[in-house]
Design brief:
Elements lengths: L5 E14 L5 H10 L4 E15 L4 E5 L6 H9 L6 E6 L3 E4 L12 H11 L4 H15 L14 H14 L4 E5 L7 H16 L3 E5 L3 H7 L2 E6 L2 E7 H12 L13
Parallel strand pairs: 3-7, 3-8, 5-6, 6-7
Antiparallel strand pairs: 1-2, 1-4, 8-9
Amino acid sequence: MSDPLVHIDNLWKCYRRHHDRPAHLKDAFLRRILGHVHQVDATWAVQGFAVHAQPGEVLGLIGPNGCGKTTVLSIIAGVLQPTRGTVVVRGRVCPMLQAGAGFHGDLTGLENIYLSGAILGMRRREITAKLEDIVDWAEAQAWVDTPVRTYSSGMLMRLGFSVAAHMEPDVLIVDEILATGDEGFRARVRRRLRAEADAGRVVLFVSHYMQEVRALCDRVVWMDTGRVVAEGEAGDVIGAYMATTGASLEPACEGEAP
């Protein structure tokens, strides 16, 4: 077995909330002189999380809102720093944590494609070589030269995903991309994600659509309150999750965000 592209061991993440934080240095000094204690609350969003992902694997993360899934993905992407634990990610990471993340509203779609590629460390000629495929997959020919701030959420989703997938990252992070869009778009995304895994990449996939997770993922990690509840084959873990939580394969309303 090859070395994992993603290796996480005993990961913890703490968020601290400050109460009555002084607005000025003078206020802080006076409070210190008078003996006022600054109150800080600690919330552990991730607690002892551990997982690994091999090349060619689609790994799903499921669990209720607020269970720590997005925090874990943000740490893998380098957006957040862990409080403690081991996080090893080999190769280029491309996160898609929301539609149009990283796009500049005043730039055109075409300009944002080059901007996103540059942020990922790609040279201009590499981006140019993939440009036609990116625009074609997103079906963006008619609007790629207009400012991104004029795009609908569906247009942002299509272009953002197309950019992410065509950059050929070693690790592709996809968070709730199938919460919007029609079945045609969702089917195209599933096929593309499976193709990325078949090319030896890791896909980390988060969704509340259990049917999508079961159809796409090789393994699934079930999280709750920042901890791993279960990990294993997609069908087994999803079955246990649905039996315990009452979740269904599909949300009640098609196209409605869970």
